[in-house]
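[agent] plan:
  1. take the single chain provided in the ticket
  2. run structure prediction with default settings
  3. attach structure tokens to the ticket
  4. add a short note for the reviewer (M.T.)
[agent] executing step 1
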Amino acid sequence: INEIKIWLLKKILHIIDNFGQGAGAEHVLLGILNNLEGYENYLLYFNKPDDQIEKLKPNININYYPVTGKLSLLSASVYLRKFVKNNNIDIVHAHLTQSIIVTQLARIKSIPVFITYHAILFPTFKYKSIVSLPYLAHLISYKKNQIIEWFLKIN
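[agent] step 2 finished; step 3 output follows
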């Protein structure tokens, strides 16, 4: 029965820019991953530091794909599409600007995609040449209405 129960668990992919101790979003996601029961949780992060990894429960599937510059945002989006398909992910939840942009560039249409803006102002963001990245991420959020409709159907 336990094998059947595991097979029926929904798979959630949580995506974040880095998984270090420095900021609030990482702490929020750590709490979600360690306390969200009834789901098979996956973590995908793009940058170091990753010193919060050691605090995760052992049942979390941890994945790292390095994003080192603007062009690697595109390769990360291709990686993300393949990851979702190959792992039969049911839900994607992206945190922070870089992860949101990669998720939106991946154009995942077959499953619900949720995005969480943890902050709006990024005075020291490394891609300074792109003005207001959170708003860019919002503009390319093509599934907004479909996600709202899906959420209303399940509640």
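[agent] step 4 note for reviewer: Helices lie at 2-8, 24-35, 70-86, 97-106, 133-139, 144-154.
[agent] ticket updated
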